[in-house]
Amino acid sequence: MDLLRENLEAYLKGLYGKELSLLSVRKLGETIPTAEDVKGFGYGSPLMVDYQLPGKKGSCVLSTMRVQHGFGHDHFSDRARILIWQNATFSRLPKHVRSLDVGYFTSDGRLVSAGEASEYFLLMEKIEGKEYFFDLERVKEEGATDLDHERVIALSDYLALIHSTKKDCPPLYQRKIRETVGDGECIFGILDDYPENTTFLDPDELQEIEKVCVEWRWRLRSKAHRLSMVHGDFHPWNIMFREGTDFSVLDRSRGEWGEPADDITALAMNYIFYSVQKSLRLTGDLKDLFELFFENYLEKTGDDELLEVIAPFFAFRAVVVASPTWYPLLSDDVRRALFNFLENVLASERFNYRDVNAYLD
Ligand SMILES: Nc1ncnc2c1ncn2[C@@H]1O[C@H](COP(=O)(O)OP(=O)(O)O)[C@@H](O)[C@H]1O
Ligand SMILES: [Mg+2]
Questions:
Q1: Could you tell me where the beta strands, DSSP code E, fall in the chain?
Q2: What is d(CA 361, CA 359) in angstroms, rounded to the nearest whole number?
Q3: In this structure, which residue's CA is closest to atom 18 in ligand 1?
Q4: Which long-range contacts does 301-305 make (Cβ < 8 Å, 24+ apart)?
Q5: Ligand 1 test: best mutation among 126, 134, 237, 254, most atoms within 8 Å of CB?
Q6: Which of 343, 315, 290, 216 is nearest to 298 (CA)?
Q7: Per residue of the chain (361 residues), what is the pLDDT tens digit?
Q8: Which residues line ligand 1 (CB under 6 A)?
Q9: Residue 336: how many CB atoms within 10 A of its CB?
Q10: CATH says 130-360 is which class?
Q11: How far apart are CA 208 and CA 214, in angstroms?
Q12: Structure letter (DSSP) for residue 322
């Protein structure tokens, strides 16, 4: 992108007053300043900017982040997060350069200040419907209807459809695996939130789980061919049904591209969770819905490899539903059963969705 002189000057006038005039711009590390447009302005290389105000000259440095895959800088929101943080913290450290402002480039190259931001919000359309967890509550108490089966087909068909869009970008797949294991919102972060000395866990049990998850990370990082369009948080509180099988989803999370097993387990874990709350086993209609979900998905995608990569994703969803913070009202027996499930799934190379109760023992 070319950084147009007029856009840079217009922005600085907004900050320092309309009397300002731009004198020169020079890429740090280069000697020739230019009063013209900066051709081929590459993100990531700081610019030295000199300007004139009535009675005084001024200088400042315009810094941006390099657009590249890897290191967690893949998305523009990643790079925004780092610059927003720098703007908020630079001036709080003694002897540290002060940040003067943070902002963004528009698609037509204008520079816009975002320095006044103190918290961000998202405005979205209102969705009609009822959250899917109400269905699971009802099925747990009253059993399943034909519509419940049709809805399972609709949900697994939807995932088969979105997952059919693939992307060739190994760093994004490795990121999904890395974050599922180590991110604050995922396994490491959820386990950090567990209370010390719980009655349903052995002392080093959480550490052992993390070690096995790291092994799984190294087993999966080479499977970048599986990188697919994903939802990222496909659980019953983010799915809203209207009439019949008509539904909408909410709250997409943690990256557009990822591992299909993440979406599969986000929902499938709840058929297990609702049944275990009742009987410490996966039984009855919830068992039927769980197996139908897998059967239909595997039939529509042919993705048999899913069963060999799914374990750490089940572990993530299981530590969430077993969490005293997220689900404070569960008995220790239920939490224990969920930990048995995740540890046994992590210990097996291939998941057998027809024999979940063997993992709950
Ligand atoms: N656009 C929307 N239309 C209707 N209900 C919504 C909408 N967004 C959120 N909700 C309701 O608010 C709940 C929480 O919103 P969500 O975006 O999922 O936030 P959280 O990050 O807390 O899960 C949803 O489960 C749903 O009940
Ligand atoms: Mg949500």
A1: 21-27, 47-53, 56-62, 103-105, 111-113, 130-131, 228-229, 239-241, 247-249, 257-258
A2: 6
A3: 251
A4: 301/160, 301/163, 301/164, 301/260, 303/163, 303/260, 305/223, 305/226
A5: 237
A6: 290
A7: 677 889 999 999 999 999 999 998 888 766 556 565 665 555 677 899 999 999 999 999 999 888 888 888 899 999 999 999 999 999 999 999 999 999 999 999 999 999 999 999 999 999 999 999 999 999 999 999 999 999 999 999 999 999 999 999 999 999 999 999 999 999 999 999 999 989 999 999 999 999 999 999 999 999 999 999 999 999 999 999 999 999 999 999 999 999 999 999 999 999 999 999 999 999 999 999 999 999 999 999 999 999 999 999 999 999 999 999 999 999 999 999 999 999 999 999 999 999 999 999 8
A8: 124-127, 131, 237-238, 250-251
A9: 18
A10: alpha beta
A11: 10
A12: T
Q: Which residues surround ligand 2, an ion (CB under 5 A)?
A: 238, 251
Residues in the chain: 361
Ligand with an atom nearest the CA of residue 232: 2
CB atoms within 10 A of CB 335: 22
Quote the tokens at residue 299: 């039939």
Residue 159: closest CA among 171, 151, 148, 147: 151
Provide the residue ranges of all domains of the chain, joining segments of one domain with +.
Answer: 5-113, 130-360
**Rounded to 5, what percent of the chain is helix, strand, coil?**
45, 10, 40
CA 116 and chain centroid, separation: 26
How many Cα neighbours within 13 Å face the side chain of 293?
A: 23
Coil, strand or helix at 265: helix
DSSP string across 118-156: SS-----PPPPSEETHHHHHHHHHH---HHHHHHHHHHH
